[in-house]
Amino acid sequence: MMLEKISKFISIIFHPVLIPTLGFFLLFNSGFYFSLLTWEAKQFVMLVVFFSTGVLPILLVAILALNPNFDLSMQKSKDRIIPLFFSSGFYYLGFVLLGKMKAFPVFKIFLVASVLVLVALILISLKWKISNHMAAVGGVTGTIFALSFRSGVNPILAILVVILISGLVGTARLVLKKHDLKQLTAGYLLGFTVLYLVIYFV
Questions:
Q1: Axis-axis angle for helices 19-28, 132-151 (nearest 10)
Q2: Does the pLDDT of residue 69 top 90, yes or no?
Q3: How many angstroms separate the CA atoms of 167 and 169, rounded?
Q4: How far apart are CA 193 and CA 41, in angstroms?
Q5: Confidence band for 40, pLDDT divided at 50, 70 and 90
């Protein structure tokens, strides 16, 4: 019982709508070149990311929940399609907003690459229940590894944090029986691969 409560807590604090904001926080505190941004610039980027990847998706789900036919737990993979579809639009909105300031290109690339992951999740969810939680964590992990190899910086603390979070989230989802190991692995590999390749090569 206690293990289930802990697993639910982990699933909430590391929910996909919060992971991008956490990812940017790690990036700003990992020794990468954009750590030199002013506090005001960091604040703007964090607010845009939190608004477009966190607040708007949460509001959408709250609106959908007004429909008694909508399953808030989204147990079936097809229940996730509408939230994922609109979330991809919200991520693109974040990309546009960041384009209004002379932000480092990697910030905008992160959001565009995340849209690709969301589109892939939509297509896969038509037939199979893949883990959105692990796709989000995998995406942040892939981003940090890609930036590390590109810049020659070794953000050991950030890497340890994302690996720890990956393990915690994967274990929590298994304990709650939300996914099996294949669904968790597929989600993680999808997020990691897309973000790593796009950020490393673009």
A1: 20
A2: no
A3: 6
A4: 29
A5: confident
